[in-house]
Amino acid sequence: MRRVFSVWIMALVIGTVFCAASNSGSAADEYDYDLVHSSVSFKARHLDISWIHGRFNEVEGKFSLDRENPAKSTFQLTIKTDSVDTANKARDEHLRQPDYFDTKQFPTIEFKSTSTKPIDGGYEVTGDFTMHGKTKKIVLVLKGGKEHTFKNVKRVAFSTELSLKRSDYGFDKNAIGPIGDEALIIIDCEGMRK
Amino acid sequence: MPEPLLYLQAMGAAAIVSATIVLAMVVALAKCVALRRKAHALGELGDTTWLSFSCVVGIGVGLVVGYGMLSLRLVWPPEKGLDRFLTISVPLVLGIELIAGFQKVPRWVAWLFRMSLAATMPRLLLHGSVYLSGTTEGWPPWQAATALVVSGALLACVWSLLSWLSERSPGNSIPLALCLPILCAGLTVMMAGYIKGGVAAFPLVATLAATTIVARLITTRSVAQANFRATAIIGVGVVSMFGLLFVGHFFGRLSTSHALAMLLSPLLCWVTELPRLRHQKSWLLGSLRLVLVAIPLLFVLAAAKRDFDRKMAPLLGESPTGFRSAAVVDPC
């Protein structure tokens, strides 16, 4: 009886040690992109005198946030190009065509981080940005990172802006015409802990 | 933005270059023959191998010049459907017709190459697209297989039927009739909002028409007239038409009915094989073929223009004002 008892105690101790070790090895919180409280929008120049605004309605993403070792944090975002919405159906259809996003050939725009470093008020995230079949390394300055627990769900949010030239991503220069080459992408992202 | 003047310049340049090359190559051969046989006329060139060869080279160089003038940037490796069409399909059909033009090459070998291209072209053009991605947005395997087989079969049918007609009733009306749906495809694809896809048609039309006319001029009053079948020009024309329509439909917004109408319209040339018409004068048959092919294309163009005015023109023209939802604005 004593032997059985000591085996149980040993198993309990070893199990506890393993669990503690595994917990201490991963301090990162995993978050999913909250589509309801986030947005990926953009604006581009029209005739170089005004701005056209639009957004992507279907976005997926996840990120892991390691407060103790921020270099281990990762960020990932996938935007469905077919969900482009500029508040005008005809223009949206036009933007889906091969002269612009070519959504049948390139259905997604993706960002995947490769390194993260903490900065004042957020993180500087370097990663691969893929659009229109071209991948380029970009740096995103994520501002925010405040946490809030609402209805037992931990949430954290970031905002960033990114300026890019469409011509760098293989967009046809003849199609750039009245819509400016440069586009500003604004990402406001709220994550829900898994 | 569409630039009609530039398109006309590119078409003119492509046509002139194609015609000049065909003419120069045939004249060069004539000189060689004259030196060897002491012959003095092109009329003694009964073998049309060199003419077919010249037409293929003329079309190829004309296309390079035309696309160069249009600044149609081609990417290698080709990632887009149109790039794959222009950098793989068009050179392949030119190569096949170049080989097929040699009289020593058995006909079955030439047709084996042609049918292989017809079978693989739909898969090539859809490569890497959402349709074949296997995701929920793409096609299920059975639908993908059906679409690829049906598309390849359509291309093979149109190609073989037009070549057969060319064998039965030679003439320049078939390649010229093919230029009509290619031009129509370019215009409708542009009106559907895919400008680059539509523009690609213009140098094709110019080179095909130019080489057909020059080949006709060369073979007039020569023994080659009876032998020349324009099969090479027809081959390049059919593949070009199919490629533009396929890309316009699956990547642009060209409707299935319009694409099918344009693809099948050249088959109306077969109407002239009816017993009552068959023995009419060749110029009458040629004109009739062109008219028959043009009729459905005019309907397609009218419908495409109506759709353009309703959907696309508001983006280019005057915008409405006042309290209305921008999402449903339709000034027409």
What keywords describe this structure?
heterodimer; A: 194 residues; alpha+beta; 8-stranded antiparallel β-barrel; 19% helix; 53% strand; B: mainly alpha; disordered C terminus
Write a structural description.
The complex is a heterodimer of chains A (194) and B (332). In chain A, strand 8 (122-131) and strand 9 form a beta hairpin. Chain A contains 3 helices and 11 strands, in the order H-E-E-E-E-E-E-H-E-E-E-E-H-E. The longest helix of chain A is centred in the first third of the chain and has 24 residues, at 2-25. Chain A has helices at residues 2-25, 89-96, 173-176, and strands at 29-33, 39-46, 50-56, 59-65, 74-80, 84-85, 108-119, 122-131, 134-150, 153-165, 179-193. Chain A has 194 residues and is α+β, with helices and mostly antiparallel strands. The radius of gyration of chain B is 21 Å and the shape is globular. Helices cover 72% and strands 0% of the residues of chain B. Chain B is mainly α. Chain B starts with a helix and ends in a 16-residue tail after the last helix. Chain B has 13 helices and no strands. Chain B has helices at 4-37, 49-69, 81-100, 107-126, 141-168, 173-191, 195-199, 201-219, 224-227, 231-250, 256-264, 275-278, 282-316. The chains are: A alpha+beta (194), B mainly alpha (332). The interface between A and B is medium-sized, with 24 and 36 residues.
Helix content of chain A: 10-25%
* Share of β-strand residues of chain B: under 5%
Largest interface: pair, residues per side? A-B, 24 and 36 residues
| Tally of individual helices of chain B | 13
Helix content of chain B: over 70%
Name the average pLDDT of chain A. Answer: 85
Mean pLDDT, all residues of chain B: 86
Low-confidence stretches of chain A: 17-25
- The order of strands across the largest sheet of chain A is 1-4-5-7-8-9-10-11
Low-confidence segments of chain B, given as residue ranges, are 328-332
Alpha-carbon distance between the two ends of chain B: 21 Å
The gyration radius over C-alpha positions of chain B equals 21 Å
Distance between termini of chain A?
43 Å
Give the overall shape of chain A, derived from the CA principal axes. Answer: elongated
Q: Helical element count of chain A?
A: 3
Strand content bin of chain A: over 45%
* Total strand segments of chain B: 0
Strand tally of chain A is 11
Order of helices and strands of chain B: HHHHHHHHHHHHH
